[in-house]
Amino acid sequence: MTTTVPTPIDVKLMNMTASALFVAFALMVVGAVAGWAWRHPVFALRGITVSGDVTHNNALTLRANVASRLSGTFLTIDLTATRLAFEAVPWVRSAVVRREFPNRLKVLLQEHQAVAYWGLEGESRLLNNFGEVFEANVGEVEQEDLPRLNGPDGQSAQVLAMYQALQPQFEDMDMALEQIELTGHGGWRARLDSGAVIELGGGTEAEVLARTQRFLKTLTQVASRYGRKVDALETADLRHQDGYAIRLRGVTTLAADGQKK
Hints:
Elements: H1 9-39, E1 47-52, H2 59-67, H3 79-87, E2 92-100, E3 104-111, E4 114-118, E5 125-128, E6 133-135, E7 148-150, H4 156-171, E8 177-182, E9 188-192, E10 197-201, H5 205-224, E11 233-237, E12 245-248, H6 256-259
Parallel strand pairs: 1-3, 4-7, 7-8, 10-11
Antiparallel strand pairs: 2-3, 4-5, 5-6, 8-9, 9-10, 11-12
């Protein structure tokens, strides 16, 4: 019968110490190699490829402006900081940044698509197709005759949705919806390109849309009673429970049945 002799405690300690030293040495070697590799010229950032939406930002200009704010090598560069640097450029809504081995970055851009001016007359903020407010040079807006929308910044998407719901209704009447505003009291106010101002009242989108549709369906008939066309409209107030009030250009006094329909 063979008897196993326990390993002396001092031998165990020596073995554990040797193992720990070996592991520490291995980590030091790996760290030194990694540090050497990260600093090696082969991993120096050689270029940035920009793709995606570059309508308002030339790719060469983008690289030149952003590259000066970047630091590090291909392996050490902060991708989050790089993304934020690109997204700080006017017109850029979002950027996706990836490493492209061995020494390049690949950046995919999405630009804001301006669909309206945002704020009061004279303000230079814009609204994109997601209902997000952004700032850029309005002189670079390619679309002509963008509408002006206004309301609390936190409700810009709601204002855009209301405009998109109402605009086709006016377009069917050959009337252009130029402005729409959500007031501080929760009411909606529209302005046409003719200068006519329409108080649409409050409520949900469906309620406002229903009132507007009822108004537009009878507007031609009401205006014709006074020898006018719909483009003679100066003001309209749809906040009445059972009808609406209007003022027509060239008509100084309206009969009771013409004031409310």
